[in-house]
Amino acid sequence: MRTLVISPNWIGDAVMAQPLLQLLRQAHPDRPIDVLAPAWVAPVWYAMAEVDSVIETPFRHGALQLRERWTFARQLRQRGYADAYVLPNTLKFALIPWLAGIPQRVGYVGEMRYGLLNVVHRQDKLAPRPMVAFYAALANPPATVVPLPAQLPRPTLMVDETSRTATFQQSGLASDRPLVVFAPGAEFGAAKRWPITHFAELARLLEEAVPDVQIVILGSKKDLPIGDAIVTLSPATNNLAGATPLRDAIAIIAQADAVISNDSGLLHIASALNRKIVALYGPTDPNHAPPFSDVSRSLSLGLECAPCRQRECPLGHHRCMKDMSAEMVMGALREMDGGG
Protein backbone atom coordinates (compact mmCIF):
# COMPACT_ATOMS: atom_id res chain seq x y z
CA MET A 1 0.00 0.00 0.00
CA ARG A 2 1.12 3.53 -0.78
CA THR A 3 0.30 7.10 0.31
CA LEU A 4 -0.56 9.87 -2.15
CA VAL A 5 0.08 13.53 -1.32
CA ILE A 6 -1.42 16.12 -3.68
CA SER A 7 0.85 19.16 -3.73
CA PRO A 8 -0.10 22.81 -3.31
CA ASN A 9 0.48 25.00 -6.35
CA TRP A 10 2.84 27.36 -4.50
CA ILE A 11 6.54 26.58 -4.01
CA GLY A 12 6.66 27.94 -0.46
CA ASP A 13 3.59 25.97 0.57
CA ALA A 14 5.12 22.78 -0.81
CA VAL A 15 8.22 23.35 1.33
CA MET A 16 6.14 24.03 4.43
CA ALA A 17 4.18 20.81 3.85
CA GLN A 18 7.34 18.72 4.24
CA PRO A 19 6.88 18.14 8.02
CA LEU A 20 3.59 16.41 7.16
CA LEU A 21 5.57 13.86 5.15
CA GLN A 22 7.96 13.36 8.05
CA LEU A 23 5.01 12.58 10.32
CA LEU A 24 3.44 10.24 7.75
CA ARG A 25 6.74 8.38 7.38
CA GLN A 26 6.99 8.02 11.17
CA ALA A 27 3.45 6.60 11.33
CA HIS A 28 3.94 4.17 8.40
CA PRO A 29 7.68 3.68 7.82
CA ASP A 30 7.12 0.93 5.23
CA ARG A 31 4.52 2.83 3.19
CA PRO A 32 6.02 4.67 0.15
CA ILE A 33 4.87 8.26 -0.36
CA ASP A 34 4.08 9.53 -3.86
CA VAL A 35 3.50 13.21 -4.55
CA LEU A 36 1.27 14.53 -7.32
CA ALA A 37 2.61 17.98 -8.21
CA PRO A 38 2.58 20.58 -11.00
CA ALA A 39 5.81 20.72 -12.98
CA TRP A 40 6.86 24.10 -11.58
CA VAL A 41 6.70 22.78 -7.98
CA ALA A 42 8.04 19.25 -8.62
CA PRO A 43 11.76 20.11 -8.02
CA VAL A 44 10.93 20.92 -4.39
CA TRP A 45 9.49 17.44 -3.83
CA TYR A 46 12.45 15.78 -5.56
CA ALA A 47 14.63 17.32 -2.82
CA MET A 48 12.67 15.63 0.01
CA ALA A 49 14.05 12.37 1.39
CA GLU A 50 10.57 11.09 2.30
CA VAL A 51 9.27 11.12 -1.28
CA ASP A 52 9.41 7.84 -3.21
CA SER A 53 7.99 9.12 -6.52
CA VAL A 54 6.96 12.49 -7.94
CA ILE A 55 4.10 12.33 -10.44
CA GLU A 56 3.84 15.53 -12.44
CA THR A 57 0.26 16.62 -13.13
CA PRO A 58 -0.79 16.79 -16.79
CA PHE A 59 -3.53 19.39 -16.16
CA ARG A 60 -3.68 23.03 -17.24
CA HIS A 61 -3.58 25.49 -14.35
CA GLY A 62 -7.09 26.48 -13.27
CA ALA A 63 -8.91 24.15 -15.68
CA LEU A 64 -11.37 21.50 -14.46
CA GLN A 65 -10.65 19.02 -17.30
CA LEU A 66 -13.03 16.45 -15.80
CA ARG A 67 -12.49 13.79 -18.48
CA GLU A 68 -8.71 14.08 -18.16
CA ARG A 69 -8.93 13.82 -14.37
CA TRP A 70 -11.08 10.69 -14.63
CA THR A 71 -8.58 9.05 -17.00
CA PHE A 72 -5.68 10.05 -14.77
CA ALA A 73 -7.47 8.74 -11.65
CA ARG A 74 -7.92 5.35 -13.32
CA GLN A 75 -4.14 5.19 -13.79
CA LEU A 76 -3.55 6.10 -10.14
CA ARG A 77 -5.95 3.35 -9.05
CA GLN A 78 -3.41 0.79 -10.28
CA ARG A 79 -0.77 2.03 -7.81
CA GLY A 80 -2.68 0.78 -4.75
CA TYR A 81 -3.04 3.79 -2.48
CA ALA A 82 -4.29 3.34 1.08
CA ASP A 83 -4.74 7.06 1.69
CA ALA A 84 -4.49 10.47 0.04
CA TYR A 85 -3.75 13.91 1.50
CA VAL A 86 -5.25 16.71 -0.55
CA LEU A 87 -3.29 19.88 0.26
CA PRO A 88 -4.90 22.35 -2.20
CA ASN A 89 -8.30 23.60 -1.07
CA THR A 90 -9.94 23.27 -4.48
CA LEU A 91 -12.67 20.93 -5.71
CA LYS A 92 -10.77 19.72 -8.76
CA PHE A 93 -7.89 18.19 -6.79
CA ALA A 94 -10.23 16.50 -4.31
CA LEU A 95 -11.87 14.80 -7.28
CA ILE A 96 -8.75 12.81 -8.17
CA PRO A 97 -8.45 10.51 -5.11
CA TRP A 98 -12.24 10.06 -5.04
CA LEU A 99 -12.28 9.02 -8.70
CA ALA A 100 -9.28 6.76 -8.02
CA GLY A 101 -11.19 4.96 -5.27
CA ILE A 102 -8.61 5.69 -2.57
CA PRO A 103 -10.21 4.55 0.71
CA GLN A 104 -9.05 7.37 3.03
CA ARG A 105 -9.09 10.92 1.63
CA VAL A 106 -7.84 13.64 3.98
CA GLY A 107 -7.96 17.41 3.67
CA TYR A 108 -9.51 20.69 4.76
CA VAL A 109 -13.13 21.55 4.02
CA GLY A 110 -12.27 23.77 1.03
CA GLU A 111 -14.77 24.41 -1.75
CA MET A 112 -17.72 21.97 -2.04
CA ARG A 113 -15.64 18.92 -1.05
CA TYR A 114 -18.07 17.10 1.23
CA GLY A 115 -18.17 13.45 0.15
CA LEU A 116 -15.01 13.76 -1.90
CA LEU A 117 -13.06 13.83 1.38
CA ASN A 118 -13.94 11.48 4.21
CA VAL A 119 -11.50 12.80 6.84
CA VAL A 120 -12.31 16.50 6.97
CA HIS A 121 -10.26 19.06 8.88
CA ARG A 122 -11.30 22.61 9.73
CA GLN A 123 -9.57 25.65 11.12
CA ASP A 124 -10.76 28.88 12.68
CA LYS A 125 -10.67 31.53 9.93
CA LEU A 126 -10.28 34.23 12.57
CA ALA A 127 -7.16 32.52 13.94
CA PRO A 128 -5.48 30.79 10.97
CA ARG A 129 -2.89 28.15 11.77
CA PRO A 130 0.75 28.82 10.85
CA MET A 131 1.40 27.12 7.52
CA VAL A 132 3.63 24.33 8.85
CA ALA A 133 1.04 23.50 11.53
CA PHE A 134 -1.77 23.80 8.96
CA TYR A 135 -0.36 21.00 6.82
CA ALA A 136 1.14 18.88 9.61
CA ALA A 137 -2.27 18.68 11.33
CA LEU A 138 -3.47 16.42 8.51
CA ALA A 139 -1.27 13.60 9.85
CA ASN A 140 -3.57 13.26 12.87
CA PRO A 141 -7.34 13.02 13.38
CA PRO A 142 -9.19 16.36 13.04
CA ALA A 143 -8.80 18.51 16.15
CA THR A 144 -9.51 22.06 17.28
CA VAL A 145 -6.07 22.48 18.84
CA VAL A 146 -3.05 21.26 16.86
CA PRO A 147 0.71 21.23 17.54
CA LEU A 148 2.48 24.52 16.84
CA PRO A 149 5.55 24.70 14.57
CA ALA A 150 7.94 24.60 17.54
CA GLN A 151 6.50 21.17 18.42
CA LEU A 152 6.86 19.80 14.89
CA PRO A 153 9.71 18.68 12.64
CA ARG A 154 11.00 21.58 10.61
CA PRO A 155 11.02 21.66 6.80
CA THR A 156 14.14 20.02 5.39
CA LEU A 157 15.41 19.74 1.81
CA MET A 158 18.46 17.86 0.59
CA VAL A 159 20.88 18.57 -2.29
CA ASP A 160 23.67 16.13 -3.09
CA GLU A 161 27.23 17.43 -3.41
CA THR A 162 27.51 16.44 -7.08
CA SER A 163 24.51 18.59 -8.02
CA ARG A 164 25.86 21.55 -6.05
CA THR A 165 29.27 21.38 -7.71
CA ALA A 166 27.88 20.91 -11.23
CA THR A 167 25.42 23.77 -10.87
CA PHE A 168 28.10 26.13 -9.59
CA GLN A 169 30.33 25.35 -12.55
CA GLN A 170 27.50 25.81 -15.06
CA SER A 171 26.48 29.13 -13.47
CA GLY A 172 30.00 30.55 -13.56
CA LEU A 173 30.16 30.94 -9.77
CA ALA A 174 33.33 30.54 -7.73
CA SER A 175 33.17 28.03 -4.88
CA ASP A 176 35.99 29.82 -3.00
CA ARG A 177 34.22 33.20 -2.75
CA PRO A 178 31.40 34.22 -0.38
CA LEU A 179 27.96 33.91 -1.97
CA VAL A 180 24.92 36.04 -1.12
CA VAL A 181 21.60 35.33 -2.81
CA PHE A 182 18.95 38.00 -3.43
CA ALA A 183 15.38 36.81 -4.00
CA PRO A 184 13.57 40.04 -4.99
CA GLY A 185 10.44 38.47 -6.48
CA ALA A 186 7.14 37.44 -4.91
CA GLU A 187 4.57 35.56 -6.95
CA PHE A 188 1.71 36.74 -4.72
CA GLY A 189 2.02 40.39 -5.75
CA ALA A 190 4.00 43.63 -5.74
CA ALA A 191 3.10 44.47 -2.13
CA LYS A 192 5.49 41.73 -0.92
CA ARG A 193 8.46 43.11 -2.84
CA TRP A 194 11.23 45.12 -1.24
CA PRO A 195 12.10 48.05 -3.55
CA ILE A 196 14.68 47.54 -6.30
CA THR A 197 16.66 50.55 -5.10
CA HIS A 198 16.97 49.01 -1.64
CA PHE A 199 18.37 45.75 -3.06
CA ALA A 200 20.88 47.77 -5.08
CA GLU A 201 21.91 49.78 -2.02
CA LEU A 202 22.32 46.57 -0.01
CA ALA A 203 24.56 45.21 -2.79
CA ARG A 204 26.75 48.32 -2.46
CA LEU A 205 27.00 47.87 1.32
CA LEU A 206 27.90 44.20 0.92
CA GLU A 207 30.59 44.96 -1.65
CA GLU A 208 32.12 47.51 0.72
CA ALA A 209 32.07 45.09 3.65
CA VAL A 210 33.13 41.95 1.74
CA PRO A 211 35.10 42.97 -1.40
CA ASP A 212 35.19 39.47 -2.93
CA VAL A 213 31.49 38.75 -2.38
CA GLN A 214 29.38 37.20 -5.17
CA ILE A 215 25.80 38.49 -5.26
CA VAL A 216 23.36 36.38 -7.27
CA ILE A 217 19.75 37.26 -8.06
CA LEU A 218 17.42 34.27 -8.32
CA GLY A 219 13.79 34.04 -9.35
CA SER A 220 11.39 33.05 -12.10
CA LYS A 221 11.12 34.52 -15.61
CA LYS A 222 8.67 37.05 -14.18
CA ASP A 223 11.48 38.32 -11.95
CA LEU A 224 13.92 38.87 -14.82
CA PRO A 225 13.04 42.60 -15.26
CA ILE A 226 13.39 43.15 -11.50
CA GLY A 227 16.83 41.52 -11.57
CA ASP A 228 17.89 43.56 -14.60
CA ALA A 229 16.84 46.76 -12.84
CA ILE A 230 18.96 45.84 -9.79
CA VAL A 231 21.95 45.09 -12.04
CA THR A 232 21.54 48.48 -13.75
CA LEU A 233 21.96 50.16 -10.35
CA SER A 234 24.53 47.65 -9.07
CA PRO A 235 26.50 46.19 -12.03
CA ALA A 236 28.49 43.77 -9.85
CA THR A 237 25.40 41.68 -9.13
CA ASN A 238 24.69 38.62 -11.28
CA ASN A 239 21.11 38.23 -12.48
CA LEU A 240 20.18 34.55 -12.91
CA ALA A 241 16.43 35.12 -12.55
CA GLY A 242 14.60 33.32 -15.31
CA ALA A 243 17.83 31.71 -16.54
CA THR A 244 18.07 29.16 -13.74
CA PRO A 245 15.56 26.29 -13.41
CA LEU A 246 14.18 25.80 -9.92
CA ARG A 247 16.25 22.62 -9.52
CA ASP A 248 19.45 24.64 -10.13
CA ALA A 249 18.26 27.53 -7.96
CA ILE A 250 17.85 25.07 -5.08
CA ALA A 251 21.43 23.84 -5.62
CA ILE A 252 22.79 27.41 -5.65
CA ILE A 253 20.89 28.38 -2.50
CA ALA A 254 22.27 25.27 -0.78
CA GLN A 255 25.75 26.83 -1.15
CA ALA A 256 24.83 30.38 -0.13
CA ASP A 257 26.44 32.07 2.84
CA ALA A 258 23.36 34.26 3.24
CA VAL A 259 19.99 34.79 1.55
CA ILE A 260 17.97 38.02 1.53
CA SER A 261 14.44 37.36 0.44
CA ASN A 262 10.93 38.68 0.32
CA ASP A 263 8.23 36.40 1.71
CA SER A 264 8.37 34.01 -1.24
CA GLY A 265 9.00 30.42 -2.27
CA LEU A 266 12.78 30.92 -2.38
CA LEU A 267 12.72 32.14 1.22
CA HIS A 268 11.22 28.84 2.34
CA ILE A 269 13.63 26.85 0.18
CA ALA A 270 16.55 28.66 1.85
CA SER A 271 14.99 27.95 5.24
CA ALA A 272 14.61 24.23 4.50
CA LEU A 273 18.27 24.16 3.37
CA ASN A 274 19.23 25.78 6.71
CA ARG A 275 20.88 28.86 5.19
CA LYS A 276 21.40 32.16 7.00
CA ILE A 277 18.39 34.26 6.05
CA VAL A 278 17.12 37.80 6.36
CA ALA A 279 13.40 37.52 5.60
CA LEU A 280 11.57 40.70 4.60
CA TYR A 281 7.90 40.93 5.62
CA GLY A 282 5.58 43.80 4.75
CA PRO A 283 1.93 42.94 4.03
CA THR A 284 2.23 39.42 5.48
CA ASP A 285 2.56 38.12 9.02
CA PRO A 286 6.12 36.98 9.88
CA ASN A 287 4.69 34.54 12.43
CA HIS A 288 2.48 32.78 9.87
CA ALA A 289 5.28 31.49 7.64
CA PRO A 290 8.65 32.26 9.24
CA PRO A 291 12.04 30.83 8.30
CA PHE A 292 13.20 27.87 10.41
CA SER A 293 16.96 28.11 9.83
CA ASP A 294 19.33 27.82 12.76
CA VAL A 295 20.33 31.45 12.07
CA SER A 296 17.77 33.85 10.62
CA ARG A 297 16.17 37.24 11.12
CA SER A 298 12.61 38.17 10.19
CA LEU A 299 12.30 41.92 9.58
CA SER A 300 8.92 43.61 9.83
CA LEU A 301 8.15 47.23 10.68
CA GLY A 302 4.91 46.28 12.42
CA LEU A 303 2.93 49.21 11.00
CA GLU A 304 -0.66 49.68 12.12
CA CYS A 305 -1.90 48.77 8.63
CA ALA A 306 0.07 45.50 8.55
CA PRO A 307 -0.41 42.70 7.88
CA CYS A 308 -2.99 43.67 5.25
CA ARG A 309 -2.34 40.49 3.17
CA GLN A 310 -3.12 42.40 -0.03
CA ARG A 311 -1.39 41.97 -3.41
CA GLU A 312 -1.08 45.75 -3.80
CA CYS A 313 -0.83 48.34 -1.02
CA PRO A 314 -4.46 49.42 -0.38
CA LEU A 315 -3.25 52.77 1.00
CA GLY A 316 -0.90 53.47 -1.89
CA HIS A 317 2.22 54.24 0.18
CA HIS A 318 3.83 50.76 0.57
CA ARG A 319 5.65 51.99 3.66
CA CYS A 320 5.85 48.50 5.15
CA MET A 321 8.58 47.74 2.60
CA LYS A 322 9.85 51.17 1.52
CA ASP A 323 10.68 52.24 5.08
CA MET A 324 12.74 49.08 5.66
CA SER A 325 16.17 50.41 4.74
CA ALA A 326 19.18 48.62 3.31
CA GLU A 327 21.06 49.63 6.46
CA MET A 328 18.52 47.70 8.55
CA VAL A 329 19.06 44.56 6.48
CA MET A 330 22.83 44.99 6.58
CA GLY A 331 22.59 45.35 10.34
CA ALA A 332 20.69 42.05 10.54
CA LEU A 333 23.38 40.36 8.44
CA ARG A 334 26.13 41.71 10.70
CA GLU A 335 24.19 40.57 13.75
CA MET A 336 23.91 37.04 12.38
CA ASP A 337 27.68 37.04 11.79
CA GLY A 338 28.33 38.06 15.38
CA GLY A 339 28.68 41.76 14.63
CA GLY A 340 31.41 41.29 12.01
From TrEMBL:
SUPFAM superfamilies the UniProt entry points to: UDP-Glycosyltransferase/glycogen phosphorylase
Domain of life: Bacteria
Gene3D superfamilies assigned: Glycogen Phosphorylase B
Keyword Repeat in annotation: no
CDD domains, per database record: GT9_LPS_heptosyltransferase
Keywords, sorted A to Z: Glycosyltransferase, Transferase
Catalytic activity line of the entry: an L-alpha-D-Hep-(1->5)-[alpha-Kdo-(2->4)]-alpha-Kdo-(2->6)-lipid A + ADP-L-glycero-beta-D-manno-heptose = an L-alpha-D-Hep-(1->3)-L-alpha-D-Hep-(1->5)-[alpha-Kdo-(2->4)]-alpha-Kdo-(2->6)-lipid A + ADP + H(+)
Entries under Pfam families matching the protein: Glyco_transf_9 (PF01075)
Documented EC number(s): 2.4.99.24
InterPro entries: Glyco_trans_9 (IPR002201), LPS_LOS_Heptosyltrfase (IPR051199), RfaF (IPR011910)
Family in the record: Belongs to the glycosyltransferase 9 family.
Protein name: lipopolysaccharide heptosyltransferase II
Lineage: Bacteria, Pseudomonadati, Pseudomonadota, Betaproteobacteria, Burkholderiales
